[in-house]
Amino acid sequence: MKGPLFYAKILLFGEYGIIKDSKGLAIPYNSYQGALKKAAILTEEVKKSNKKLQNFYEYLATSNQELVSLRLQDLKADLDEGMYFDSSIPQGYGVGSSGALVASIYDKYANDKITVLENLTREKLLKLKQIFSFMESYFHGKSSGLDPLNSYLSLPILINSKDNLEPTGIPSQKEGKGAVFLLDSEMVGETEPMVTIFMNKMKNEGFRKMLNEDFAKYTDACIDDFLGGNVKSLFGNVKQLSKVVLENFKPMIPQTFHNVWQKGIDSNDYYLKLCGSGGGGYILGFTEDYIKTKNILKDYKLELVYRF
Question: Of 86, 219, 236, 249, which is most buried by a Cβ count within 10 Å?
Answer without folding.
Answer: 219
